[in-house]
Design brief:
Elements lengths: L7 E5 L3 H11 L4 E7 L2 H7 L5 E8 L5 E9 L16 E5 L3 H8 L3 E4 L4 E2 L9 E7 L4 E6 L2
């Protein structure tokens, strides 16, 4: 048995409009669909009872999707993730021009962690890199090849 590919990454969000704006308007990903569902099989998959989930899917160039879920039921309080907390994750997305993408995404970010860094050595030598936080606190690493 082997892994055959990447399918999607899911982010639970508090504000669907703000999340869609970050991924679609800020990063330029294509919105494939959006809606609300209440399915018993989804309750079983996620391990929660009587869910009502607002969802959106965005196309990730190179393969796969970004899937956004806003749980209308059962509702939960937002968390404040930090990169050093076990279980916290981040996305790494390649871009062709980091300066342009960073200016485009800036209005939709909660925070831009630093100025872009040119990685000085190792396997990533010469890449430009910056971490940004979208409106829900999810860290997105933007990378430009050397």
């Amino acid at each position: 048995m082997t892994v055959t590919g990447f399918n999607h990454f899911n982010v639970s969000v508090a504000d669907m409009d703000a999340a869609v704006a970050f991924w679609r308007d800020g990063l330029g990903l294509q919105l494939l669909g959006r809606g609300t569902v209440s399915y018993s099989h989804l309750d079983t998959i996620v391990g929660l009872d009587e869910t009502t989930i607002e969802w959106a899917e965005l196309d990730l160039p190179g393969g796969g999707l970004i899937e956004l879920f806003r749980y209308a039921a059962p509702a939960a309080a937002p968390i404040t993730p930090a990169v050093n907390q076990p279980g916290t994750t981040h996305f790494a997305i390649e871009v062709d021009d980091l300066a342009i993408v960073l200016e485009q995404v800036r209005p939709y970010c909660r925070r831009i962690v630093s100025d872009p860094v040119n990685i000085p050595f190792g396997d990533w030598q010469g890449w430009l890199c910056v971490y940004v936080e979208e409106s829900n606190g999810v860290t997105v690493e933007l990378l430009q090849r050397s």
